[in-house]
Structures are given as C-alpha cells and as structure tokens.
Amino acid sequence: MSIKHIARTSYRALWVNKSRSFLTVLGVLIGIASIIMMMSIGKGAENLILGEIGGLGAETVVVRPGQEPTGPTDVAETLLGDSLKDRDVDLLRKKSNVPDVIEVSPFVIVPGSVSYGGDTYRPMVIGGAADFFIDSFDAYPEEGVLFDESDTRQKANVAVIGSKVKEELFGDKSPIGESIRIKNQSFKVVGSLAPRGQVAFFDIDDLVIVPHTTAMTYILGIDYYHEIILTAKSADMVEYVIEDVTRTLREAHGITDPDKDDFFAVSQQGLADQIQIIIGSLTAFLSSVVAIALVVGGVGVMNIMLVSITERTREIGLRKAVGATKKNIMNQFLFEAVLLTSIGGVIGIILGGTLAFLISLVLAQTVAPAWTFTFPISAVFLGLGVTSLVGLVFGLYPAKKAAEKDPIEALRYE
C-alpha cells in the first residue's frame, strides 16, 4: 500500500467528519498558537532590551548589588540588595584602585508620583548626577540649568525634569523656579531638558532627576545605592575596569570566596548575556506551562481516534478481507493522527504569528515605540515537529488497536 494511497484514504476519512476533525485538533491548535506567541513576544522583548543596552555605550560598566542573576528569580536579589555604599563609590573613584575609569556615577531609583498644584504624574524618578545624562545621552537643558556637585554635597532639594513631565505638570508655563513634590518632599525645578526620547533604559522626556544624596536621605531613607555606572577610557579598557572593580570591592567587603560576592560588575555585553538568559528562561518556563494544552490535545486525538476506529470497524474488517495487512491498517490510522495534528500545527503557527503581530503593534503604541514584531523561524520547525510527535505518540495506541482487530468479528460488527 503506497504512501500516496494512504494519504488519499486518510484525507477522505477526515473530510467526511469535518466537525469532529476540527474539534480533535483544537487542543493542539491552541497549544501551538500559544507557544508561537510566547516565543515571538519573548524574542521581541529581548531585541528591545538589547537595543536599549546598546544605547549605554561600549565603554560602560555597571555595578549592581547581590550576586549576578542567572534566571528570573535572581532579579529580586539585585533589586533589594544593599551592599553598595558611599565608601564603595569613593574607592572606585580613586585612580590607584581603578585607573582606567573617567567617571563614576551612583544611582538610586525613587518609586512614586510627582505632583504640582492639583496635578499628579508618575514619571521615572532617578537620584543621581544630572551631568551623567548630558555626557552619556546628549540630554541638554532647554530651560534653566543642571544641578551641580555642590548641590549633591549639600543635599539640595532641586530637580531637573524631562519635556514630557514639563508638559504634563506645567503645560505651556515655564517650570523654572516652581516647586514640585516627590514623596511629600518639595523640590525646586532648576532645569528642563530638551525633548530627547528613549535612550538606553531611560525615556529622557519622562524623567525627573534629583541629587542622589537628597533622594537617599529625605525620600528613601537608605544608605546604599541601587546601581553604580562607570565609564571607561575606551571600550578596550572595559575588561580591565571590571577586574579592578571586582578586586577593589572584594577587598573592601572582606570577600575571599568569589562565590560569596555581594555585588557584580558587567559590561554592555555582560548585560546583554544576562538579559538573554533571563528572558530565555522565562519564555521556556511559560512555554512549558502552555505545552500542557498540547498534552490535553493529544489525549483528545487519542479519544477521537478510538471512537473513529469503533465506528469504522466494518471498514477495517472489509479491508482486511480483501488483503490489507496489520501494517497497512496501522499505517493508515497512524497517518490520520499525524495528519490531524499537523493540520492543527500549521493553523496554530499562523494563528500564533498573527496574534503576536497584533500584540506587537499594541505594545509599540502603548509601551515602547521601539518594539518590533519578531517571528523566529525556529518556532515554525518547533511547531511542526511537536505536532507531528504528538500525532505519533497519541495515535500509536489507536492505530495498533485498529490493526489487531479480528477481520471476521469486524465484518459481523453492527
């Protein structure tokens, strides 16, 4: 019995029961569509974040508290770590410790809203050096000035705001000299940045910058930093800077075992590798959860195939009576199962890709303009491979049961 004949017979059998065939593949279809969608959105997020990292510059070294994350669950330790203090910043600024660094900028993140008069807005509030954004991102003031090092030392209540923050809180009015409130603390606006848009992880237009000393003392009430960003003399010096930073901080923290580091220093490439690991792990986890639908779909295929075999008992007996072997019968029903799941896989790939495209459009409009639709080709091969495997695994038992039917008993079946 040729493959062509098996395929033609399988197609006719499935076409006769179109509704049942569709319901059979529905579980497989949903599972594959969900996995394709997860992979596409995960890849889109990865590309977006890697693009943002590229905006930091190849000379950038980032020091963060906690141990270097290897998966999504390790990120919380970094966000909540308190191991980077003033003494660490002072040590890193010493040329004798890190000779190839030209700038060291500590930062803290301030959650919450900003208000002016009766208006409230939720921008990104950063405690750090305002001139860092000038040097790194070409974010120059459109009005007013930047606060300086003396403001930082004196813990002055001054702020520099982005163009979108200005528009939301002040409209056409000049914000210079006005007071805004952050966490019940009053800050005098000394500068307003020109429109700049998204650069690296920062939307400059949606930013409020205050001295980190003020943020730590009067807003957050902490004595540690969330991040320290260093700028090396050149991209070629980055690895040397990381080595010097690691050595300096280990000595300062009394660490002799590298496995017990309470900080980590990474370059732009290191950040990219971390992001790929975290997003890859998260995507794999979500995809494995969604894959349960494939198991459900596979069980559905098995059940429907068993029902189909019962209904076609006389057909099986007749085919055996005219010379069909057990192998012919088994191949027939196994091919039908694989054909069913493969059709579900193809439809699922198309549906998943379409939904991922629509979601990407929404995300580009509402979350990040730089978000782009990505459809990994590997997802297509994965979808087709998985659905074929599901058909083989869950179609094997029904096919074997059909092949073992006694032809005489099958012909007598009513």
UniProtKB/TrEMBL annotation:
**Major site of localization recorded for this protein:** membrane
Membrane topology classification: Multi-pass membrane protein
A GO term, aspect molecular function: transmembrane transporter activity
Q: Which UniProt keywords apply?
A: Cell membrane, Membrane, Transmembrane, Transmembrane helix
Q: Where in the cell is it found?
A: Cell membrane
Q: Which residues form the MacB-like periplasmic core domain?
A: 21-247
The cross-references to Pfam families, in alphabetical order and at most eight, read: FtsX, MacB_PCD
Taking every annotated instance into account, which residue ranges of this chain make up the domain ABC3 transporter permease C-terminal? Answer: 288-407
| GO cellular component terms, A-Z | plasma membrane
Please list every transmembrane segment annotated in the UniProt record, as residue ranges. 21-41, 284-309, 333-363, 375-397
Could you say which protein family the record assigns here? Answer: Belongs to the ABC-4 integral membrane protein family.
- Annotated protein name in UniProt: Multidrug ABC transporter substrate-binding protein
Q: What species was this sequence derived from?
A: Candidatus Colwellbacteria bacterium CG10_big_fil_rev_8_21_14_0_10_41_28
